[in-house]
Design goal:
single chain; alpha+beta; five-stranded antiparallel beta sheet; four-stranded antiparallel beta sheet; 38% helix
Length: 264
């Protein structure tokens, strides 16, 4: 099959077979491009969609982007089940195999250093949400129905609500801090990401912890058990665990690998 080369990840050679019937971006099965003791996982994609100009336009099409990202992630997940991949950015495309090899040679030292550090490790994501807002203070029982509260009563209720809100956030931040410290002790590395905006993510509650943890694959079961033991310590806090993932949050040593090499 002809076409451009879409690159998913770089890894070391491995013997395990990928999932049967695995397809990648644009429906083409991934293949291994070996070069100087490293492997680039690639597939063919049509130039009409993945050359520089059409790709830039497609990246503004949410439906196209969602389908492409799902196919990209499917290949990364399949690789993570059998080896330690170093994932490349969505939409990393080269003219031909030669362009991929040029990129691999240009970043060979960084690839090897990062793969050594991540070998046998996976990423787990943990988010903490504060689910409950404090209720608005109710009218005093002796307040006659229909009679407006005084300005003093109104201010008092607002102060009570503000204190309750501050107490809730203080409790949430303390819980998130304790959980992060505990999980960091079970991980070889951690990254704190900015809290997610609930209006954009669609998740209920307020995100107070958005963290990633680098965990040896063999210790993942223990890590998950620690999350399970601590997630119900404080009422009103929801803990979400995701993974295991390729170590996206821990590949910064590679530098600007996504733009290396020849672009079509």
């Amino acid at each position: 099959m002809t076409g451009l080369r879409y690159v998913y990840a770089v890894c070391r050679p491995f013997d395990a077979a990928l999932q049967a019937q695995l397809t990648g971006v644009a429906g083409d099965p991934p293949r291994m491009l070996n070069h100087r003791g490293l492997v680039a996982v690639v597939s063919h994609v049509p130039e009409r969609d993945f050359a520089e100009d059409p790709l830039r336009k497609h990246l503004e099409d949410l439906d196209w982007l969602t389908g492409t990202a799902r196919a990209h992630q499917g290949v990364i997940d399949a690789l993570t089940a059998v080896t330690t991949p170093l994932p490349l950015r969505l939409g990393t495309v080269f003219r031909d195999d030669s362009g991929v090899r040029v990129m691999m040679e240009a970043r060979e030292e960084a690839f090897r250093r990062t793969l050594d550090r991540l070998d046998g490790r996976v990423e787990w994501g943990v988010k903490v949400y504060a689910e409950n807002e404090p209720p608005e203070p109710s009218e005093p029982a002796e307040q006659p129905a229909g009679k407006p509260a005084s300005g003093r009563d109104y201010l008092r209720r607002r102060r009570m609500h503000a204190r309750a809100h501050e107490n809730m956030w203080e409790q949430a931040e303390q819980f998130a801090g304790r959980l992060h410290a505990t999980l960091s002790d079970y991980a070889e590395g951690s990254r704190l990401h900015a809290p997610q905006n609930s209006a954009l993510s669609g998740a209920s509650g307020q995100n107070v912890l958005n963290a990633a943890y680098l965990v040896p694959r063999g210790h993942s079961e223990e890590f998950v058990e620690v999350v399970d033991r601590t997630k119900d310590d404080v009422p009103g806090m929801r803990v979400e665990l995701t993974g295991p993932w390729a170590a996206y949050s821990f590949v910064e040593e590679v530098g600007d690998v996504h733009d290396a090499g020849e672009r079509p």
